[in-house]
Amino acid sequence: MSDPINANPTIIDVSNLPTRIGQDTKATNRNAELVERITSLSLLTPKVHHPSSPATTVPDLVSDVDMDSTEDELVDEDDEDEDAIDAQEIFDLISTISDPEHPLTLAQLAVVNLSDITVTLGQNKNTDISEVLIKITPTITHCSLATLIGLGIRVRLERCLPARFRIRILIKEGTHQSENQVNKQLNDKERVAAACENDQLLSVILQMLSTCK
Amino acid sequence: MVKLVKSIKAHQDKAWSVSSHPTLPLLVSASTDKTSKIYKLSSKQNFPLLADLEDTHKRSIRSVAFKPPLGGDDAPDGFLDLPALAAGSFDSTISIWGIDEPSNEYDDEELVANQQEIFTSPSNEWNLMAIIEGHENEIKSVEWNHTGNLLASCSRDKTVWIWETDPETLEEFECISVLNDHQHDIKNVTWHPNQNLLASSSYDDTIRLYKQDQHDDDWTCVGILNGHEGSVWCSKFEDWASPLAVKNRTRLVSASDDLTVRIWSCVEGEQDDVSSTALPTSIKHDSEMVWELETILPSAHKYPVYSVSWSKKTGKIASVGSDGRLVVYKEDEGKWSIESVTESSHGVFEINCVIWASLDDKTEVLVTAGDDGYINVWEV
Hints:
The complex is a heterodimer.
Chain A: H1 23-41, H2 67-80, H3 87-94, E1 117-120, E2 130-136, H4 146-160, E3 165-171, H5 179-186, H6 189-195, H7 199-209
Parallel strand pairs in A: 2-3
Antiparallel strand pairs in A: 1-2
Helix pairs in contact in A: 4-5, 4-7
Chain B: E1 3-9, E2 15-20, E3 26-31, E4 36-40, E5 49-53, E6 61-66, E7 84-89, E8 93-99, H1 108-113, H2 115-118, E9 126-133, E10 139-144, E11 150-155, E12 160-165, E13 173-179, E14 186-191, E15 198-202, E16 207-212, E17 219-225, E18 232-237, E19 249-256, E20 261-267, H3 268-278, E21 292-296, E22 305-310, E23 317-321, E24 326-332, E25 335-342, E26 345-348, E27 351-358, E28 364-370, E29 374-379
Antiparallel strand pairs in B: 1-29, 2-3, 3-4, 4-5, 6-7, 7-8, 8-9, 10-11, 11-12, 12-13, 14-15, 15-16, 16-17, 18-19, 19-20, 20-21, 22-23, 23-24, 24-25, 27-28, 28-29
Pfam family, one (chain B): WD40
GO cellular component, one term (chain B): nucleus
Protein name (chain B): Probable cytosolic iron-sulfur protein assembly protein 1
């Protein structure tokens, strides 16, 4: 690509992004952390951090809560919502999509934000038609790549989510000069279907999705 | 109230469109999998597959339409017409398909008397008769006029093309008009079932109507319907033969991304009065039609409404869309109500198309096509 449209975007450090990915490893780390906290109670042992523990940098759901209760609560929740998809899961699916012009992810550029994702599940959350609403924030108001970014998010979600999800992608209010135009195009199933049959466009999208975890 | 009669796994990907032959029990479908399939609309024979039209289009087939028989669907018995159809694709071309006249097996009388059986037999070979090129990009819809000599097509290139052909040979298609009144992508074209009046629905939220000028034969836009607050996905005219049709009144039903289904009407007598008083003669066109929104049908859809169909037999309307609902509306003394709502009619999938059709035993059915690749047949 020639001149970048936004040459100097604000970047968020990956470690400051909310995620549930790798939570299993964190669970094992939590044991180490527990040991650490217990040992740190001893006056003899200086407080050291386990080098691989992300607990100090990640404002994660589990890191700062009281440990006794967390274990149980998490287990309960997991049982109940075995397959229920929530905003965090959607965020984890799209946060690592690459920006089409920067070697950064959409989450790093704050194009996608956890607080701008709404999941509305059907009455039976595992079988009924459900809805995902994502508001994206282009890095600059005249970003001509907004449609491409939206399309990338849609393709990613259409491939990952069960068919019962209706995906709605909107430009966050007031963040783009042709908001309505972009919104209309991104949510027109026929336009999206036709765009995805364009090999050139599809290869750009696949490139964006190649960094997805 | 609506009962599933048959569910056919017709395609490997989205089924976009279905069309039924006006007089023969034939159904054709179109899909993202680049194929069209032809089935016999016979519940006794369990809806056999008659033909698989493949290896022709490079991209999704978006729209299919059977050509009405010569002389219209009220042609007298004993009239012979070989079935044919048009398929419009995202690859910007239209393909025309038909069957050869059955060979010497039958004499003419036999052929005429048994055409319903002969033309719906799997032994007929469906051949590619023509490929029509002209549109710049994706074709969204194709439709024949009631006499089968005109074919309309529309595209993301913002134009409607009218092609003229000899309906007996279907060899040549000459473009007689390119209409570029819309500002955006055109989603659908539909002909009036009894006259040469054409409507196009667009991404620009409007519907436009076109007629041939009486003086110079040119096709011109004679009306524009404003009101929808989102793309108009589909529209259909009321047949003059419908039990609720009124003389001199033309009605159109439309389905939109704004979740509504609307009925528009044009009353001829009234129109003359209006145009003579409201417009100075200098800008008055003889052909201009005055259309009004008659009503918005009771709200029944939660997501965009993709397709609508008006029954010639009962005057009922059916609509389908992204919410998976199949909705049937009926009119009683000018007032429309919802007769039935069938939830999840293609499971959790979106429904792209609905049509009224007749089975070989003349039972009226609804046929729907969904993102699940299925074609469902419903008794009402």
